[in-house]
DNA sequence: CCAGTGAGTAGGAAATCTGGACCCACGATA
DNA sequence: TATCGTGGGTCCAGATTTCCTACTCACTGG
């Protein structure tokens, strides 16, 4: 008797359960920029200190950040992204590009990112197999869990 | 006297202010799958109905969704993604891929997406200028707002 | 008439968020 | 020595959100 009210099993939901809370992705942004200290995070994100402490614990537990000592006496810590955390950076860059275009409308961009090739980074999501840009009309989803179709729970 | 406690101006933060609330991106996932009706959203996302109603209003206001009538009598609505909404789908796909690898560890994936090229979609974020994959070590950020550096607010 | 469906509202309890105050260890200043 | 400043937090009261269950309203189909 599977509870019929369970939501769709989905890696997007799983990922958001880890990094979808308020401030979590901004923490990752700052850490990727190299700002891993508590006070920097508080200032640059604008989050309350205790909430930030909670988020940091969660992200460390999830294996997205690590807490490092950078000074023994006095004890001082710094958060850094693990490889898994760094692999979320492309998500952030894609989101930034969307915000640049749709919210800032391409003007007064507060931050530019330069790619190693020397140009300004404009991220494009592509298909590994064919290299083509990913666009909605080229995608077809297939649910692979019994009890679920793309449109919803099946009539069991 | 700029308030020194304002957070860093950033398109990522802007974007998350619109779509970063709980369930918002899951709404977009369902809508992109073609499930734009209220009850489908409730079932597939597992969100409380009132919260969902709030999110839908917000996403419509933000120009990410539109509300369409698909039946006059009785009045029935369907939510669809606007072009701006569809352009967030690559973000979702990238997030899904991250979740597939880091949370599901590549096993028991609940959903597969096929690309128009005939292969299973594995999204890769690339640089528009050079086509290379975006990786953390190739990125350099530059703050472009007076009062801010990459590391934090400048000393005025 | 009755049951069912789609799209919500209503209301109270539970959780989360907020801004600020506070703590502790240390180093620097005076 | 006393005091200040800094880094990294914790704790608290109050406001806001979110959750959950139930209810409404309009309509359809039998």
From TrEMBL, chains A, B:
<protein>
    <submittedName>
        <fullName>HxlR family transcriptional regulator</fullName>
    </submittedName>
</protein>
<keyword id="KW-0238">DNA-binding</keyword>
<feature type="domain" description="HTH hxlR-type">
    <location>
        <begin position="10"/>
        <end position="107"/>
    </location>
</feature>
<dbReference type="Pfam" id="PF01638">
    <property type="entry name" value="HxlR"/>
</dbReference>
<dbReference type="InterPro" id="IPR036388">
    <property type="entry name" value="WH-like_DNA-bd_sf"/>
</dbReference>
<keyword id="KW-0804">Transcription</keyword>
<keyword id="KW-0805">Transcription regulation</keyword>
<dbReference type="InterPro" id="IPR036390">
    <property type="entry name" value="WH_DNA-bd_sf"/>
</dbReference>
<dbReference type="InterPro" id="IPR002577">
    <property type="entry name" value="HTH_HxlR"/>
</dbReference>
<dbReference type="GO" id="GO:0003677">
    <property type="term" value="F:DNA binding"/>
</dbReference>
């Amino acid at each position: 008797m599977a509870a019929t009210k369970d939501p769709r099993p989905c890696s997007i939901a799983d990922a958001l359960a880890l990094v979808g809370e308020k401030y979590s992705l901004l923490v990752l942004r700052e850490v990727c920029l190299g700002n891993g200290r508590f006070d920097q995070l508080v200032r640059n994100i604008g989050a309350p200190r205790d909430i930030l402490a909670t988020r940091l614990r969660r992200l460390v537990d999830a294996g997205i950040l690590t807490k490092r000592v950078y000074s023994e006496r006095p004890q001082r810590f710094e958060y850094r992204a693990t490889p898994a955390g760094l692999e979320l950076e492309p998500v952030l860059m894609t989101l930034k590009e969307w915000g640049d275009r749709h919210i800032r409308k391409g003007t007064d961009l507060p931050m530019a990112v330069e790619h190693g090739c020397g140009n300004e980074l404009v991220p494009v999501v592509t298909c590994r197999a064919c290299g083509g840009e990913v666009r909605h009309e080229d995608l077809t989803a297939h649910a692979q869990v019994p009890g679920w179709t793309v449109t919803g729970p099946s009539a069991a």
